[in-house]
Amino acid sequence: MISINEGKEKIMRKEAVKAAAWLMSACLLMGSLPASPGRTRKVSAAEPEIEGFATKEELLTDYSLSGAADKKVQKVMFGQNGRGAAQSWYIAGKDPAEENGLVLFAATPLKERQWFYSPRVTHAYEANWRCEYKNNPSQVNGNHYGGSEIRSVLKDMSSDPSYFSGAEQRVMRETAIRTADQENGSIYTTKDKLYLAQGELGSKQISVGTNEESNVNKGLKISLNQYQDGSGDWFWLRSPCSWYDLCVLAARSGSAVDYHSISINNAHHVAPALQMNLSSVIFASSAPAASFEGNQRTKGRALTMRYDAGRSLGSETILNQEKVEIRGVAGNRYLVVQNKNGAWRKKVERETTVSAKDVMIDGVTLNSFKNCKVWLEKTDADRITRATRPNQTETPSAKQTFDFYGIGTSAGKDVHFAQLEYAGGDHAILHGLNEYGSQIHPYFTGRYAYIKVRSKEGKLLFFKEYKGTDWTQKHDTKIPMPEDARVSIYHAEPDRLQTNSDDSLKKNAFKNTYIYVVKDHKLVSQKLEKQQFEFLGLGDWEFAKMDIIGGSAWIDTNYTDYGPHCYFQNQVYASIIIKDQNGKVIKKKEYIGQKNEPVGSEDILLDEGYTVTIYHAEPNRLRTNNDQQLKQHMKENTFSYIYKNQKLEEIKR
């Protein structure tokens, strides 16, 4: 046992080592590092370190709970606990087996009063536990972690939105951990997103992260002297006692790993570990996710992760350290400024400029943005805070970009399958991407997105369609963009179409379609005008509708009890026929009097010169939004049109 005085001496020696290391580091930095352009330094006389701000690289290398003198102790916020409160975690370090894998350990219990396993008997091994053995056993003890109730509870937590939102679950990685089987004298592997720490009787340390079969206690160390959960109560480990089949080891802050009165049917705290995938994280800040304006102290607060928003939030550019120029920002975005004293937030949208003198942090008005971190951010409903990269000082790009995303992946990001980039001139570039080598969105077996470009005269210049079952491909294509060209962009899930200026590029949508005209080498969003046809039946009930807009004919079929008009037994009551320039039938839709058609919506792309023929047995029940243009030349209850200049023109008969 270590005496109290010996413990104090150890702590004093650690503090002395920390102080010496800090002084040496500061001298080296101030005396030997050149101030070369673009170089980032943690500490210098001109650029002091901002406490409560960490890049992704710093998150992976600078923090630990092992007690090492060269590591910092830091908490982060992620998910919620069983009471619905925000959950804090200690950073344990980088998982040795995974790139961009940050291991966290619960700073407070996710759940209180949970038993390990209730049956007090040896029981049969079950394959559905998914424990990886060299040879599966037939029997295991009650303290077997792989088949325990507490592991089932952790599995449920990891997929429960009351603990972790869907987006948070996607950035949690499974970790392969090895655990001893007391009954069979062997080691097995489990792979879970939430798991208990490993411990050794009498040790002042526990371990988390990927370990080894040859040494289950090898992993990222957590010092129980440094770990403070505020309760002082026991929390479960996954390690079985080596001599008693109804006993599992446990730990508590400031103490050593023990087994005293720890039986598997006792109730103790659940403090698990997890691994975050930092691939899409760009930095973390102790400034809480912005939800209101004003300033706030950040010292001593837990960090909140900021995920890369790309160009979807707009841009902020620092000019001469005196002002921030903000462009292309839609609503519900915040400008955040952080320095060593705290953080300041302001809600911004559209085009605006913020002066340093507009910013007050902890009672002090700024004279410049020097020694500050500046970024834009927005927090989603699922607690994911997306941000721009801080301190962008280069000239903002004049490019207009559209990023096409699809189904979410196990990597925690949506499939990024294409980007349309236009920077003026006579052409744009369509970048086909292959980030994950997967299908775009297999739930959509048909059209998922498209890009269509027509000349001013209506000539088709370019068309690219993406089906959900297509595989992502890496390929760049040059797209002609002459002045006055008309560009149509469709995405089945418009929230997965991101632009670098939502305010100017994602408006005036109709049924997930956006229309632009090239004006002065810039894509200008168009207010969409539609031609509307309503098909009414018995009792003037609308059984179908067709809208001509944005280069498409949208046909919607509605539910009816007995078909559009039950008096027209086995007769065509209405129809729509679309043909191309050569007379080939592109679409034929018929509505039989007493027959119910499947409810749904169809999008038929129209090209210049296509013809549309509409028949209605009771033409007075065919309604349009402009009868003067669309219902003047009927023949045998039929109306005929040609598609010219982005609209239907009625053909005289």
TrEMBL record:
InterPro entries: DUF6273 (IPR046240), Mucin-bd (IPR004954). Residues 136-275 form the DUF6273 domain. Residues 438-518, 534-642 form the Putative mucin/carbohydrate-binding domain. It holds the Pfam family DUF6273. Signal peptide: none annotated. This is Phage tail component domain protein. It comes from Anaerostipes caccae (strain DSM 14662 / CCUG 47493 / JCM 13470 / NCIMB 13811 / L1-92).
